[in-house]
């Protein structure tokens, strides 16, 4: 249970804790002490990485994730325009094959704003909570959220511009996301209006895809321009209340990214591609607290780290089904 609390503390913006060397398990201390004696293996890894950087291979898991994300959002669009009524509504609130679905953060905002609990909202919230607990919480962000996809494409441009010195990567305090979550909760209670929903890029994009573009897309474009020129993935990292909500849901999820210390030679390729690199603090030399560690609740399960790791130290697993 202490691992779950620590995972939530980091999700809320706390810095990952480092255990004193003397308090690490004996097998972990021995591994840290002797792993780098295998010079031949390390040389092979460096050669492999040099080749990989010279000729980058396709990220197969990333491509599959994009296909899933596009398919889910396309299902909303086709269901509306073809009037097949399989999936009605948008990501904030919908009905799939007759089952009510409600985005957890949106449902919370509605209940706080109107001080009234509608039974369909309870059913939809419960359904979505169980679904995303089973699927990993912030998996919603990287596998379903349309803003995540366009922000990921904007990030690719941002990285090229940073290399040329034409863009900056300003870092903000991660606790800002928690404070914003609280601010929007208070605004919903005080104003009786779901303030966050009017600026949520997730909701704006989902509705624009289904019902057509509106002026709110100007706000989304401004966010993307800010991320391209000033701060890599700023909205997802430092602001999005939806990401925080789903992170809490996924804190005890059976679906996790899993780290194996014996396979790791601390090349750091995983942290370079990670949206939330603080969750991979454990891969830094000397920071792993056990031979095997589940990555924390802020992980979006995008699986880019799994593709990037040259030694198979990072995998994904579903507890009870795989190891």
From TrEMBL:
The lineage of its organism: Bacteria, Pseudomonadati, Pseudomonadota, Gammaproteobacteria, Chromatiales. One of its GO terms (molecular function) is 4 iron, 4 sulfur cluster binding. This is Ferredoxin-type protein NapH. PANTHER family: FERREDOXIN-TYPE PROTEIN NAPH. NCBIfam families: napH. InterPro entries: 4Fe4S_Fe-S-bd (IPR017896), 4Fe4S_Fe_S_CS (IPR017900), Electron_Trans/Redox (IPR051684), NapH_MauN (IPR011886). One of its GO terms (cellular component) is plasma membrane. The keyword Transmembrane applies. Keywords: 4Fe-4S, Electron transport, Iron, Iron-sulfur, Membrane, Metal-binding, Repeat, Transmembrane, Transmembrane helix, Transport. The keyword Cell cycle does not apply. Residues 289-319 form the 4Fe-4S ferredoxin-type domain. The chain crosses the membrane at residues 66-87, 107-134, 178-196, 208-230.
């Amino acid at each position: 249970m202490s691992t779950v609390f620590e995972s939530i503390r980091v999700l809320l913006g706390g810095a990952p804790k480092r255990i004193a060397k003397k308090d690490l398990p004996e097998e972990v201390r021995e591994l840290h002490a002797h792993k780098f004696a295998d010079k031949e293996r390390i040389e092979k890894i460096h050669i492999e990485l040099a080749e990989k950087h010279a000729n980058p291979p396709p990220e197969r898991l990333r491509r599959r994730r994009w296909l899933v994300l596009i398919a889910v959002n396309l299902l909303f669009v086709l269901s509306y325009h073809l009037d097949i009524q399989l999936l009605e509504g948008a990501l904030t609130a919908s009905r799939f094959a007759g089952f009510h679905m409600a985005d957890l953060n949106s449902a919370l905002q509605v209940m706080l704003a109107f001080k009234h609990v509608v039974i369909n909202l309870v059913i939809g919230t419960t359904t979505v909570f169980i679904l995303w607990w089973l699927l990993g919480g912030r998996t919603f962000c990287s596998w379903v959220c349309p803003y995540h996809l366009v922000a990921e494409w904007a990030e690719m441009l941002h990285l090229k511009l940073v290399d040329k010195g034409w863009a900056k990567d300003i870092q903000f305090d991660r606790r800002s996301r928690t404070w914003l979550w609280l601010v929007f909760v208070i605004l919903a209670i005080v104003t009786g209006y779901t303030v966050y929903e009017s600026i949520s890029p997730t909701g704006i994009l989902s509705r624009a895809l289904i019902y057509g573009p509106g002026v709110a897309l100007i706000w989304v474009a401004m966010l993307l321009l800010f991320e391209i020129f000033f701060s890599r993935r700023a909205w997802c990292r430092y602001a999005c209340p939806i990401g925080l909500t789903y992170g809490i849901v996924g804190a005890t999820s059976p679906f996790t990214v899993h780290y194996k210390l014996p396979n790791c030679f601390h090349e750091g390729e995983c942290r370079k591609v990670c949206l939330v690199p603080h969750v991979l603090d454990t891969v830094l030399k000397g920071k792993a607290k056990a031979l095997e560690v589940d990555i924390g609740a802020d992980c979006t399960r995008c699986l880019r780290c799994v593709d990037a790791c040259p030694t198979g130290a990072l995998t994904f697993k579903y507890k009870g089904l795989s190891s």
